[in-house]
Amino acid sequence: MPEVPEVEALREFLDGHLVGKEVARVLPLSINVLKTYDPPLTALEGATVSGIERHGKWLDIVAGDSGLHLVIHLARAGWLRWKDEFPATPPRPGKGPLALRTVLTGGDGFDLTEAGTTKRLAVHLVRCPFEVPAVASLGPDPLDESFDRDALAALLAGERRQLKGALRDQRLIAGIGNAYSDEILHAAKMSPFKPVQNLTDDEITVLHDAMRTTLNSAIERSRGVAAGRLKAEKKSGLRVHGRAGETCPVCGDTIRSVAFADSSLQYCPTCQTGGKPLADRRTSRFLK
Fold first, then answer.
1. pLDDT along the chain (288 residues), means of 10
2. CA distance 217 to 74
3. In this structure, what CATH number is given to the domain that contains residue 52?
4. Which range marks the domain in which residue 268 is found?
5. Burial of 36 by CB count in 10 Å (0-12 exposed, 13-18 middle, 19+ buried)?
6. What torsion do the CA atoms of 271, 179, 147, 187 make, to the nearest 10 degrees?
7. Collapsing DSSP states into helix, strand and coil, what is residue 124?
8. pTM across the whole model
9. Are residues 163 and 184 in the same domain?
10. Handedness of CA 128, 133, 136, 139 (dihedral sign)
11. Predicted local confidence at residue 233, as pLDDT
């Protein structure tokens, strides 16, 4: 799933490719992709893109002259693919991964695609991005200048859950998902199952530093990368997430995994849990 670094890189890419251009048409090609009906997508025809904003993992394409916002969440398997030109034959709705096509008057534009059978990619056309409930409920952005160590401490005060879950909660902190929460906790040398209420003042400082360093480093790696190559760039830069069975680049231990119903986390026992493997929910019942 695209998280803060990839969505920020997409925002920068679109800022250079989309701003100042006129929308010719927007075509929804999947029955599930469009989540709003008023205003209709035809209201964007002839509008000029005035800016690209980001709200956590959400992209916000602003059509300034119309006062409209095309707000996009790429979900787990969605992506944005820039096209310098499109085929002459219009696409057929409901065929393949293509979910939505935006064509500019110059003939270029972008496609939104989504792999797999579970369709969660979401597009909203609204007059204000905060009309989208998930955007309105977002916590602060971890890259915002105001998000300092004390701001993080204030957010975590009173939390009674594990650190991994807290970092992934979009209502607490916007934009961090499964991959970068693993990377942040590895950099901070903290267990994903550590209770938030047990963090010391020094550990909160370490966690904040790891968060900012990890996310900013990922953005720097992604900056200037073409939209179509950002997924590969993300994967190449991850140290522990998605690398179960490989060697930890810090200590040389084997990276382990814990699986859940619809996701998994990865960590290094030596770096993060005092050398003790965490129980994997899939296999721990066989070890009793």
1. 90 95 94 93 96 97 92 93 91 84 96 87 97 98 96 95 96 96 98 96 98 93 74 81 96 94 90 91 45
2. 22
3. 3.20.190.10
4. 149-286
5. middle
6. 20
7. strand
8. 0.91
9. yes
10. negative
11. 73
